[in-house]
Amino acid sequence: MLALEGRLKGIPIGIDDFKKLMEHGHYFVDKSLFIKEIIDDASEVKLITRPRRFGKTLNLSMLRYFFEKTDKDNSILFKDLKIWQQGDRYINEHGKYPVVSITLKDVKFDSYEKCLEMIKSIMSREYLRHDYILRSSNIRDIEKKIFYSIANREASEVQIAESLGFLTELLYRYHGERVVVLIDEYDTPINYGFIKGYYEKIIDFIKIFLGTALKNNINLKMGVITGIYRVAKESVFSDLNNLYVSSVISESYSDKFGFLEDEVRELLTYYGIDSKIDEVKNWYNGYVFGKDTVIYNPWSIINYVKDKCLQPYWVNTSSNDLIAEIFYKTNVKIKQKLELLIQGQAVPNVMINSNINFRNIIGTKMLDEEVFWNFLIVSGYLKTQNLRIDEGRILADVKIPNKEIAVLYEDIIMNWFKQGEMSSDIIKIMLDNLVNGKIKEFEDDFKYLVNKTFSSFDVGRNSSENFYHAFVLGLLVNLDGKYRILSNRESGTGRPDIMIIPVDKAKKGVIIEFKAAGKDIDKDRIKPLKNAVEMALKQIEEKRYEDELRNSGIREVIKIGIAFCGKEVSLAYEAGTV
Predict the structure, then answer these.
(1) Spatial CB neighbours of 316, under 8 Å, sequence gap ≥ 6
(2) Which of 164, 246, 394, 404 would give a disulfide with 213, using CB separation of 3.0 to 4.6 Å?
(3) Tell me: the pLDDT tens digits for 308-366?
(4) C-beta separation of 100 from 167 below 8 A
């Protein structure tokens, strides 16, 4: 795609109306083969779940302008796109069907009554868009009366619940063609209903609202629904036996939401910034849809092209309070595995189940591990790799997809610390003391931090070494760039818990070993913390953990033993050369 007459196409940030985007000549990453895949998919109703701001609304808008039968010919919007090169079978579907198209993405209210009023408003606008059908002699007076009541926002709750199906019936009678129904972000009112306390009411409503249009509807050509989550256990779709679900792990539509590598390269080349592809990849690439389709975050990419600045864009488009909340609800086992993510590694053998919903998340004090990982996957905060089926179960390894999401994880960890009344400045001072050999000052701040923060972690007296290990690794993300942080990596004749290797070889390296002080260490419980600290330092010495520092060209080392029993902490250290 080349710039015309020296004028670059506009960058369509926040434009999710396909016609507006094309008529204004903005840059469009051609996803029109989504239309072909929709046509080829024989499923009558298709539910496609993807993270927020991955192009769901724009793609549904594109479907509307392609399929909808109108007085104005919209073919000019598609003639330069890939769909128009696919042959008459697909071209002949253009402009053929009446279309009902609504979005529920803004139905976010603190009461069921306000939610219902917003849905009345949405349906009023859609009815008014089709008010031409009232000219038909096929529409009876009683039906016109119902039509007017919905259009005037005066309809009863029952009439609004049946309004989607009723409109498809009238449109079929007028056009003589079955109707395409497009519903964007169907799950938004359900999620807010749970958060705000009107969950059962909105579930009952949505079940009828969708069911009248999508279940056993002889007037329906096809339905396409998008959302972030599949709300299955609440029976929204329990009676919909004609439903096909495409989630983030499905092969279907895996390349139609988000940008592919070639699409990003072409976009960056067009705007003259293709030299930044490696940095862009590090920040915004890494999502995996289906088994192995690698995807860039589209919202972050177009914002980067606009601003030319590598920074978090997608994670800042909405509140991350819910993500932070579910982190706080995790148990010790999950927090131990978060250590791997912080290091850029994968959590192995996660059971994949895309049928998670807000009831699993909001309505529990402590999250189930399966719910935790799957919520992060479907929401776009983790990616899957090595997707596989083992004895009928879908398993995958999960990993933080890119730098943008890694920054969010670091921010959440910092919020944990802030909850413990420790500012980021104090944490920075504490870490400076650590790497500069001021261990007494470090110890004082570390003990204070443990005492204030660990109440959020439900620390038990017999917490494992891995718990403290993960906690300290969370602290050390703040050293990123100036130090390499190794965890359980071979050095000497063993695997030190944590090793801090400075990029500047003139600086000190740090080795940390953790020990739990308990009955296995000292059956008589005489000075168990002191004994455990001595064991930690002895292990560092005997197993020659400093070998990796020596091989890295580091000459000064601080060896630290940290022992704990619940929230009680003891620390000892030795400083020297290697």
Answers:
(1) none
(2) 164
(3) 999 999 988 776 666 777 776 666 677 777 777 877 889 999 999 877 666 666 655 55
(4) yes
Residues counted in the chain = 578
Helices first, then strands: H and E counts in the chain: 23, 15
Provide the residue type at 86 as one letter.
Q
Q: Are 284 and 304 in contact (CB under 8 A)?
A: yes
Residue type, position 48, single letter:
I
Helix, strand and coil in the chain, % to nearest 5: 45, 15, 35
In this prediction the pTM is: 0.79
**Is the Cβ–Cβ distance between 270 and 237 less than 8 Å?**
no
What are the angstrom distances between the C-alpha of 91 and each of 74, 314, 323?
Answer: 12, 35, 43
Contacts of 191 (CB under 8 A, 6+ apart): 229, 358
Query: What tokens does 451 get?
Result: 């005492």
Show the tokens assigned to 547: 């070998």
Query: Are the C-beta atoms of residues 436 and 508 closer than 8 Å to each other?
Result: yes
Rounded to whole angstroms, the Cα distance separating 512 from 564 reads: 13
Structure tokens at 406: 């890694």
Q: Are 499 and 509 in contact (CB under 8 A)?
A: yes
Q: What is the pLDDT of residue 578?
A: 83
CA 232, CA 538: separation in Å to the nearest integer? 55
Q: How far is 11 from 21, CA to CA, in rounded Å?
A: 9
Q: How far is Cα 488 from Cα 469, in angstroms, rounded to an integer?
A: 10
Distance CA 39, CA 204 (A): 31
Look at residues 341, 325, 568 and name the one whose alpha carbon lies nearest to residue 459.
Answer: 568
Q: Give the other-Cβ count within 10 Å of 135's Cβ.
A: 8
Read off the amino acid at residue 308.
K
